[in-house]
Amino acid sequence: MQITNIPKEFKKAIPVIQKLNHAGFEAYFVGGSVRDCILNLPIHDVDIATSAFPAEIKAVFDKTIDVGIEHGTVLVLHQEESYEITTFRTESTYQDYRRPDHVDFVRSLEEDLKRRDFTINALALDPTGRVIDLFNGLEDLEQRRLKAVGVAEERFHEDALRMMRGLRFVAQLGFDLEEKTQVAIMNNAFLLSKISVERICIEFEKMLLGQDVKRAFQLFIATHCYRYCPGLTNKKTELMEIVPQLTHHIDDLTVAWCLILDQLLIEKKQHKAFLKAWKLSNQRIQEVELLFQALERVKQDTLTVLDYYSLNETCLKQLAKIATFYGIHLSETDLLQAYRSLPIHSLKDLAINGNDLMQALNRKGGAWLKETLQHCERQVLQNEVPNEREPLLDEALEFVKSSDKASN
Ligand code: ATP
Ligand code: MG
Question: Phi first, then psi: what are they for 62, rounded to 5°?
Answer without folding.
Answer: -75, -45
